[in-house]
Amino acid sequence: MYSHHPNIRVEQDGHVTTVTIDAPQTKNACSGDMWVALGAIFRELSYSGSRAIVLTGAGGNFCSGADLSARRDGSVDRPSNNLGGMRVLGDVVLAIHTCPVPVIAKVDGLCVGAGFGLALAPDLTWCADRARFSTIFAKRGLSLDFGTSWLLRERIGVHKAKEFAFTARMLNGTEAFELGLVNAVVAAAELDDAVREVVDTIVAGPPIALSMSKRELDNASTSSLVQALEAEALAQNVNASTEDMREAMMAFFERRPPEFHGR
User: Fold this and answer.
1) Alpha carbon distance 226, 246 (integer Å)
2) What is the pTM of this model?
């Protein structure tokens, strides 16, 4: 299923889909084809019936950004004007960030450059204490990309975002948590279980209602209160006609956990 690239694994376990970048020889750096594959996978998963998506990396690292191994001599193997390619990369960010299914990044090891943006594009980010985060672009003679100019500011505010953009300082998992970059930090040996716990909670929830809550929160930063209230009214009107809401009410009165089916 969703076999778009040999270095991107997609695995289904019940209602949970795990997308794994699997290129340990480059610490999961992504080539252009791999970025495109990630975008295609998330667009397809948006309407797959999955209730939660975990995005992670294999071999003890999350993602070391763009694969620069073909440019060891400092040459640039692309046209001087790469606007089209960068817009394709932007589409990948949007495919992940706007996916209607809740997306959780599970970060261990190296998470830098575009890989840092890849960890911020999902809805939630859990990391190991040994994880290492950096914008790193300044060290490569580049400005921010993969959405980090927006995603980083949204997470930690403009002044801290500028600090890390200008210095490319490396942060460990604990520092990232203290700054608000990630939702939680745990020991590396506990990361899988910690992510599974939050994923199981999300999967047990009402898929339609959670998807609408995600849209409401994502749109709030560019909406007025009046617009947000109208969006809430429309969403609740939809929820009121679902089988899931009726099941929730019955479960409440019968004093039992609800069983949601996304209908």
Assistant:
1) 28
2) 0.90
